[in-house]
Design goal:
This protein is mainly α. It has one domain (about 10-210): Arp2/3 complex 21 kDa subunit ARPC3, CATH 1.10.1760. The protein has helices spanning about 10-25, 45-70, 80-90, 90-120, 125-150, 155-160, 165-195, 200-219; strands at about 30-35, 35-40. It has a two-stranded antiparallel sheet with strand order 1-2. The chain is globular, with a radius of gyration of 19 Å.
Protein backbone atom coordinates (compact mmCIF):
# COMPACT_ATOMS: atom_id res chain seq x y z
CA UNK A 1 0.00 0.00 0.00
CA UNK A 2 1.46 3.35 -1.00
CA UNK A 3 1.22 5.83 1.87
CA UNK A 4 -1.78 5.75 4.17
CA UNK A 5 -4.50 6.11 1.53
CA UNK A 6 -6.41 3.22 0.06
CA UNK A 7 -6.92 3.01 -3.69
CA UNK A 8 -10.33 2.46 -5.25
CA UNK A 9 -9.39 -1.16 -5.88
CA UNK A 10 -8.42 -1.64 -2.26
CA UNK A 11 -11.61 0.02 -1.01
CA UNK A 12 -13.58 -2.37 -3.20
CA UNK A 13 -11.74 -5.35 -1.73
CA UNK A 14 -12.33 -4.02 1.78
CA UNK A 15 -16.03 -3.69 1.06
CA UNK A 16 -16.10 -7.26 -0.25
CA UNK A 17 -14.18 -8.61 2.76
CA UNK A 18 -16.50 -6.73 5.11
CA UNK A 19 -19.51 -8.31 3.41
CA UNK A 20 -17.93 -11.77 3.51
CA UNK A 21 -17.04 -11.39 7.18
CA UNK A 22 -20.53 -10.21 8.12
CA UNK A 23 -22.10 -13.13 6.27
CA UNK A 24 -19.77 -15.53 8.03
CA UNK A 25 -20.32 -13.88 11.42
CA UNK A 26 -24.10 -14.01 11.20
CA UNK A 27 -24.43 -17.49 9.72
CA UNK A 28 -23.01 -20.90 10.72
CA UNK A 29 -20.24 -20.36 8.12
CA UNK A 30 -18.11 -18.29 10.48
CA UNK A 31 -18.15 -20.20 13.74
CA UNK A 32 -18.15 -23.78 14.91
CA UNK A 33 -19.11 -23.61 18.59
CA UNK A 34 -17.52 -26.20 20.86
CA UNK A 35 -18.18 -25.63 24.55
CA UNK A 36 -17.33 -22.12 25.80
CA UNK A 37 -15.03 -21.46 22.82
CA UNK A 38 -15.56 -21.59 19.08
CA UNK A 39 -13.54 -22.43 16.01
CA UNK A 40 -13.71 -19.27 13.90
CA UNK A 41 -13.03 -18.91 10.19
CA UNK A 42 -13.41 -15.13 10.35
CA UNK A 43 -9.63 -14.74 10.57
CA UNK A 44 -9.47 -15.55 6.84
CA UNK A 45 -11.12 -12.32 5.54
CA UNK A 46 -8.89 -10.42 7.97
CA UNK A 47 -5.81 -12.07 6.46
CA UNK A 48 -6.95 -11.35 2.90
CA UNK A 49 -7.57 -7.69 3.77
CA UNK A 50 -4.12 -7.44 5.35
CA UNK A 51 -2.50 -8.96 2.27
CA UNK A 52 -4.35 -6.85 -0.29
CA UNK A 53 -4.74 -3.57 1.59
CA UNK A 54 -1.86 -3.44 4.05
CA UNK A 55 -1.92 -2.49 7.76
CA UNK A 56 -4.81 -0.04 7.48
CA UNK A 57 -7.00 -2.53 5.64
CA UNK A 58 -6.05 -5.35 7.99
CA UNK A 59 -6.88 -3.20 11.02
CA UNK A 60 -10.24 -2.17 9.54
CA UNK A 61 -11.41 -5.72 8.83
CA UNK A 62 -9.90 -6.89 12.11
CA UNK A 63 -12.00 -4.21 13.80
CA UNK A 64 -15.13 -5.42 11.99
CA UNK A 65 -14.35 -8.93 13.21
CA UNK A 66 -13.95 -7.57 16.74
CA UNK A 67 -17.31 -5.81 16.59
CA UNK A 68 -19.12 -8.94 15.42
CA UNK A 69 -17.36 -10.93 18.14
CA UNK A 70 -18.52 -8.43 20.77
CA UNK A 71 -22.02 -8.60 19.32
CA UNK A 72 -22.18 -12.25 20.33
CA UNK A 73 -21.79 -11.15 23.96
CA UNK A 74 -25.22 -9.52 23.74
CA UNK A 75 -26.91 -11.99 21.41
CA UNK A 76 -26.28 -10.30 18.05
CA UNK A 77 -25.46 -12.95 15.46
CA UNK A 78 -25.66 -15.78 17.96
CA UNK A 79 -24.58 -16.07 21.57
CA UNK A 80 -21.12 -16.78 22.95
CA UNK A 81 -21.38 -18.45 26.36
CA UNK A 82 -18.02 -17.01 27.40
CA UNK A 83 -18.77 -13.59 25.92
CA UNK A 84 -22.12 -13.34 27.68
CA UNK A 85 -20.51 -14.23 31.00
CA UNK A 86 -17.71 -11.68 30.55
CA UNK A 87 -20.23 -9.01 29.53
CA UNK A 88 -22.20 -9.66 32.72
CA UNK A 89 -19.01 -9.20 34.74
CA UNK A 90 -17.81 -6.00 33.01
CA UNK A 91 -19.30 -4.80 29.69
CA UNK A 92 -16.46 -2.38 28.91
CA UNK A 93 -13.69 -4.90 29.50
CA UNK A 94 -15.67 -7.47 27.53
CA UNK A 95 -15.65 -5.06 24.57
CA UNK A 96 -11.90 -4.47 24.92
CA UNK A 97 -11.24 -8.22 25.19
CA UNK A 98 -13.27 -8.96 22.06
CA UNK A 99 -12.33 -5.97 19.91
CA UNK A 100 -8.67 -5.04 20.49
CA UNK A 101 -7.13 -8.51 19.85
CA UNK A 102 -8.83 -8.75 16.44
CA UNK A 103 -7.81 -5.21 15.43
CA UNK A 104 -4.19 -5.88 16.45
CA UNK A 105 -4.27 -9.19 14.59
CA UNK A 106 -5.23 -7.52 11.31
CA UNK A 107 -2.63 -4.79 11.79
CA UNK A 108 0.31 -7.03 12.66
CA UNK A 109 -0.23 -9.74 10.04
CA UNK A 110 -0.10 -7.07 7.33
CA UNK A 111 3.47 -6.31 8.42
CA UNK A 112 4.21 -10.03 8.56
CA UNK A 113 3.04 -10.42 4.96
CA UNK A 114 5.14 -7.45 3.84
CA UNK A 115 8.22 -8.78 5.62
CA UNK A 116 7.92 -12.34 4.31
CA UNK A 117 7.15 -11.17 0.76
CA UNK A 118 10.13 -8.80 0.80
CA UNK A 119 12.36 -11.69 1.86
CA UNK A 120 10.97 -14.42 -0.44
CA UNK A 121 9.33 -12.50 -3.34
CA UNK A 122 6.76 -15.33 -3.39
CA UNK A 123 3.05 -14.62 -2.93
CA UNK A 124 2.26 -18.22 -2.03
CA UNK A 125 4.81 -18.49 0.79
CA UNK A 126 3.92 -15.04 2.12
CA UNK A 127 0.20 -15.77 2.06
CA UNK A 128 0.45 -19.18 3.72
CA UNK A 129 2.59 -17.69 6.49
CA UNK A 130 0.15 -14.78 6.90
CA UNK A 131 -2.81 -17.15 7.06
CA UNK A 132 -1.12 -19.15 9.80
CA UNK A 133 -0.28 -16.09 11.87
CA UNK A 134 -3.75 -14.63 11.41
CA UNK A 135 -5.19 -17.59 13.33
CA UNK A 136 -2.21 -18.00 15.68
CA UNK A 137 -2.07 -14.37 16.80
CA UNK A 138 -5.85 -14.19 17.07
CA UNK A 139 -5.70 -17.02 19.61
CA UNK A 140 -2.68 -15.62 21.45
CA UNK A 141 -4.13 -12.10 21.73
CA UNK A 142 -7.62 -13.35 22.63
CA UNK A 143 -6.48 -15.68 25.41
CA UNK A 144 -3.84 -13.26 26.72
CA UNK A 145 -6.43 -10.47 27.00
CA UNK A 146 -8.82 -12.89 28.71
CA UNK A 147 -6.25 -13.70 31.39
CA UNK A 148 -5.06 -10.09 31.66
CA UNK A 149 -8.51 -8.50 31.96
CA UNK A 150 -10.51 -11.24 33.67
CA UNK A 151 -7.85 -13.44 35.26
CA UNK A 152 -8.88 -12.49 38.80
CA UNK A 153 -12.57 -13.22 38.31
CA UNK A 154 -14.18 -16.34 39.74
CA UNK A 155 -15.23 -17.38 36.23
CA UNK A 156 -11.70 -17.49 34.82
CA UNK A 157 -10.18 -18.78 38.06
CA UNK A 158 -12.55 -21.75 37.87
CA UNK A 159 -11.51 -22.33 34.27
CA UNK A 160 -7.82 -22.18 35.21
CA UNK A 161 -8.36 -24.58 38.09
CA UNK A 162 -4.99 -23.87 39.69
CA UNK A 163 -3.03 -24.72 36.54
CA UNK A 164 -0.12 -22.79 35.08
CA UNK A 165 -1.38 -20.01 32.78
CA UNK A 166 0.41 -21.41 29.71
CA UNK A 167 -0.96 -24.89 30.41
CA UNK A 168 -4.44 -23.43 30.86
CA UNK A 169 -4.32 -21.55 27.54
CA UNK A 170 -3.01 -24.59 25.63
CA UNK A 171 -5.57 -26.90 27.21
CA UNK A 172 -8.44 -24.47 26.65
CA UNK A 173 -7.85 -23.63 23.01
CA UNK A 174 -6.57 -27.10 22.10
CA UNK A 175 -8.03 -28.53 18.91
CA UNK A 176 -9.91 -25.27 18.23
CA UNK A 177 -6.71 -23.32 17.61
CA UNK A 178 -5.16 -26.11 15.56
CA UNK A 179 -8.22 -26.28 13.27
CA UNK A 180 -8.22 -22.49 12.88
CA UNK A 181 -4.53 -22.40 11.97
CA UNK A 182 -4.83 -25.21 9.43
CA UNK A 183 -7.91 -23.79 7.70
CA UNK A 184 -6.62 -20.21 7.74
CA UNK A 185 -3.20 -21.21 6.38
CA UNK A 186 -4.60 -23.25 3.50
CA UNK A 187 -7.52 -21.04 2.47
CA UNK A 188 -5.64 -17.75 2.81
CA UNK A 189 -2.82 -19.12 0.67
CA UNK A 190 -5.15 -20.40 -2.04
CA UNK A 191 -7.18 -17.18 -2.19
CA UNK A 192 -4.11 -14.93 -2.20
CA UNK A 193 -2.48 -16.90 -5.01
CA UNK A 194 -5.68 -16.51 -7.05
CA UNK A 195 -5.73 -12.78 -6.33
CA UNK A 196 -2.09 -12.55 -7.35
CA UNK A 197 -2.83 -14.21 -10.70
CA UNK A 198 -5.64 -11.70 -11.19
CA UNK A 199 -3.15 -8.87 -10.42
CA UNK A 200 -5.20 -7.71 -7.43
CA UNK A 201 -2.29 -7.55 -4.99
CA UNK A 202 -0.72 -4.18 -4.39
CA UNK A 203 2.87 -5.23 -5.13
CA UNK A 204 1.68 -6.69 -8.45
CA UNK A 205 0.46 -3.21 -9.37
CA UNK A 206 3.80 -1.73 -8.36
CA UNK A 207 5.68 -4.24 -10.50
CA UNK A 208 3.38 -3.52 -13.43
CA UNK A 209 3.93 0.23 -13.05
CA UNK A 210 7.70 -0.22 -12.89
CA UNK A 211 7.60 -2.40 -16.00
CA UNK A 212 5.57 0.21 -17.87
CA UNK A 213 8.02 2.92 -16.78
CA UNK A 214 11.00 0.94 -18.04
CA UNK A 215 9.22 0.20 -21.33
CA UNK A 216 8.39 3.88 -21.76
CA UNK A 217 12.02 4.84 -21.13
CA UNK A 218 13.28 2.36 -23.72
CA UNK A 219 10.78 3.40 -26.36
Amino acid sequence: MNGKKLSTKQLTILGLMTAVLLIMAYTPLGYLNIGPLAITFNVIPVAIAAITCGPLGGAIIGGVFGLTSFGQCIGIGGVSAMGATLFAINPFLAFVQRFIPRLLDGLIIAFIYKGVHKATKKVSVSAFVTGFFSAFLNTVFFMSSLVLLFGNTDYVQEMIGGRNIIVFICATVGINAVCEMISSTILTGIIAVALGKAHLLNHDTAVSQNTNTVSGTQA
